[in-house]
Every structure is written in C-alpha cells, then in structure tokens.
Amino acid sequence: MKPLTHLIFGSIFAFILLLLFPAIKLIGFSIIVLSSVLIDIDHYIYYVIKKRDLNLKNAYNWFVENEKKFRQLPLRKKRQVCPPLCFLHNLEFLLIFAVLSFYSHIFLFIFTGFIFHLFLDSILAAYQGYGHDISAIYNQIKSRRMKHVEEL
Fold this sequence. Notes:
Blueprint: H1 3-20, H2 25-38, H3 41-51, H4 56-71, H5 75-78, E1 81-82, H6 91-100, H7 105-127, H8 136-143, E2 147-148
Parallel strand pairs: 1-2
Helix pairs in contact: 1-2, 1-7, 2-7, 3-4, 6-7
C-alpha cells in the first residue's frame, strides 16, 4: 500500500479510537497516525542499503516499479518471490513494542499504529492472492531459496 493510503486509513482508524477512547487525546491520535505511516521508513532504509542511493524519490519509484513487476507475475511465481527485509514489518519488532508499551503509553500508541499498518498490508496481500509473512526470522530462512522481485 502506498504511504498516502496508509495515512488516510491510519487517520480514520486513529479518529475512531479517539472517539471510543478520548483519554488517548490528540497526542495519542497523532502518534498512531504517524506510526501507521512512518513504519514504512524501513522500505527506504532497505533501498538505501541495496542501491547505495539516498534519493527518496528514486526509492519510491523503485518500489513502485517492483510492485508492478510483482503484480504481473502468476500466483505460483509470486509465492517464489522473497519479500525485502523490512525490519519494522515483523513480529519480532512488534513484540519489542508490545513489551515497551507496558512502560509507556507512547509505545502503546506506536504499537497500535504498527499493528494497524500491518493489518492493512495483510489485507492487500490476501486480496492480491499471496501470503504476508510477518516474521523476519522466518522470511530470512525461507528466502535462501527464493529470489527478490527485482532479480526476475
């Protein structure tokens, strides 16, 4: 999903939470919205490491092109493609925020935004007909025999 889509849905989700739980206040609303979008910073970091290029526009275009390429693959080929290692998009990182949320509400708001973002990503993955793994460890083990979409 593109950042603007995450921003729109994240804002709606955070607004509903604000209506249901006014105690989160504007700060909680803002953190949930921002974290539901800014989790994608790991895509940019992946691009910078992979391509040695700091240009944000190039990174965005590279991911858009790879997404187009991925969508055109038949389903059996999609299942053979390794997702990029996006360190924030995984269960292991979420568990860290879940534990930290017991110590501060800020981490709970970040955790909530991350969970919502991953929920939206999972819906998109299911709609497009492929699974969405959220474990970085599992993805790295599985990826040893797979190719990245840009290698196809």
